[in-house]
Amino acid sequence: MELRIAYGRSKPRLAGKRILWLGLGGIAGDDPALPDVRAAIETQLNAGLAYYCGFAHSSVGLLPDAEERRQRLDAAGNFLLDDASAGAERALQYAEFDRRAAEFVEQFIAADRVPA
């Protein structure tokens, strides 16, 4: 028995719907690799999953700096971990993280509004 939840041969069940993907990334927001990471994630989610499932609109919000120890690559391609943030620094880091997530949600909702 085949279970088709998100797609099918005739009309996908998610056809016409909209989706916002919020990707949490441990990568540092200032890492030079971030644009490539963002492009890869957007391609997989928008062109891969969302298109295949029939979504009318798909938007990706990548949120770097999600970890208390940000991750980055140095110029030689070595994996590095920043020192862990703690206390007030960590609270500020996550407050900014929450603000950016809310901004993605607001933009996504506003994109569907039709002027009166």
Structure, explained:
The protein has 116 residues and is of the alpha+beta class. 38% of the residues lie in helices and 17% in strands. It has helices at 34-53, 87-110; strands at 18-24, 57-63, 71-73, 79-81. A hairpin with a 5-residue loop joins strand 3 and strand 4 (79-81). The relative contact order is 0.18.
Give Rg in angstroms: 18 Å
Instruction: Quickly count the helices.
Output: 2
Spatial order of strands in the largest sheet: 1-2
DSSP, total strands = 4
> Span between N and C termini?
47 Å
Estimated helix fraction: 25-40%
Q: Averaged pLDDT, please?
A: 84
Helix/strand-derived class? alpha+beta
| Beta fraction | 15-25%
Q: Characterize the main sheet.
A: 2 strands, parallel
* Helix-strand sequence: EHEEEH
Low-confidence stretches: none
Characterize the overall form: globular
